[in-house]
Amino acid sequence: MITLGYLQERGLISDVLKLCDTETRVLCKASEFESKKDVGYCDSIVVIDGFRWVASDTPLADNPAIVYSSDGNSLCCWNRDEQKLIKKGIQDGMLVVTEVVKNNYKKENETMSDLNNLNLDDLGDVSIDNTLSNLEAFGEAPVATGSIVPKENFESANQKFFLHAKENGRFHAFVTKTPTAVKASKTSVKLLDANGCIQLDPDNPLTPEEQNTFDKSKKAPLSKILKEQVVTFREAKPGQIVGGIISYPAGIQSSVSFIDDVLAKKEVSFDPNNKEKVIKVLPYEQLLATIAAIFHGQIREDDAIMGKEASWLQISKKQIKKKKADADVTGTAQPAQYRPTLILRKDTATRKSMVTEKNYVPMAVYKTASQQHLTAEEADGLNLHVESVIKNKGIYDALSDSTKADIKWDDANSEVRVSSEYFKTKGQCKPIVVPRYFDKTLTLTDVLIPVKTRKVNKKDPAKFTYSYVTYKLDDPENGPLANPNYRDVIEKSGLSLEVFAEEARKLTRRKSKKDDEDTSVDTYLSAMQGDINNKSMFEGAIIDSAELTKILKGIA
């Protein structure tokens, strides 16, 4: 029997869901919704016929947007905003999508069962063992019927293999180029009057309709509001993801023939009792390929590292934005291009940011200084940080009066042209309040800001080049491994600091031409980009097993 606890224990449904009191709302049966789905918008909560339990993240009286229900054998997910009912059943011990019914009231001829119209949010908690064969992330041909008839599960013979991998493998941490840091930036803000109201641009008057709106709500188009330039401080996210720490059960990927059998949908042999973990530090592309091949596209985060915030990561697609120079000038519509990426599975996540302060280790860290007890050298380094944002006297003059009251510019000072109330050695520094990048409701308790150095620009001696001072893995006293938080992440992953450092250095090393030929992921990525809209990632025609083996080489 399917229970809420059963689904949550296996990570198939969000941990934040709770059983609901069904007496507080009038409910609509799924059969009634299907019979009336052409009539109009459905404002009721739709549940499976003969339900045994109903669950949501808020009480039914609050009219939640997403509601789950089960009759003990099947599961339904009602999405009020999308007017969509997703039905799921049990197959080989896994949840699989069996039918999607959508309200037809919006468009007369809309094909409601086209999987290409379903995105990851629509499918919500779709089976972790059916993701890459049923999710829109890697496509499915349109089905012109009133429901989706699921095709044969990818490698149904290997469902136990995938389940074994997911139960005993984990994603531990990301490896990034740099850590999070508080950085200065120049930005435009709305100019307010003494009463805190926006000021309108007299050279760009409102239309009569806009004026009417402004008189009622004090709102106006952004282009018609006066703005001013200010210098602010924000917490930047960690740098580019270059790899990750991952573990999987030993012996499940030991030969080329193993990968060939997986891709050929043949049953592969493995020892379900061998739960010894192989722990690897992998480049980002290999990380994606490994999650795709071994974990069927989804992997659980490490509870020891993430605690109650542990969720599932899944492979998705991200559209490649063309540069203006690359834009098609013929006027002909070009098909969108995509690349594979890794995202949080939203239905299981209790956080918004995939990379948090808990689950990453940087390749290098910044030299930072606090506002408290600054030395003259540190104050100069922090003021150079601000100077690098302003750059010259012309930009400084355009700043707001309030900003210029806190930041002074002096071209006559050959060492540091900026002095500020934020970074000084005499008197109390003006406090800097910085919201956390992963949760704007939180603020940093200890504001550490990277210092910068300055040197004359080689191409233009009238300009300067500014650089952060960084410490890399090889620096035992100041580098990332000297930070107890990063050491803790590595050790909880099951690696020694020495092994991590050795493997992490390989992530960003410059490759020779021969290395590129041996480990290229071009074919893999090209296949996913070219066929991502209409085929399953795991169709034999999409991924060449030899190429995937190249990507995965060295991790067995």
Q: Could you walk me through the main structural features you see in this protein, from its secondary elements to its overall organization?
A:
24% of the residues lie in helices and 24% in strands. By secondary structure, the protein is an alpha+beta fold. The protein folds into 3 domains: 150 residues, no CATH class; 198 residues, no CATH class; 101 residues, no CATH class. The strands form 9 sheets. The protein has a 6-stranded antiparallel beta sheet with strand order 1-4-5-6-7-8, with no helix packed on it. Strands 13-12-9-17 form a 4-stranded mixed beta sheet, with helices on both faces. It has a 3-stranded antiparallel beta sheet with strand order 14-15-16. A hairpin with a 4-residue loop joins strand 6 and strand 7. The protein starts with a helix and ends with a helix.
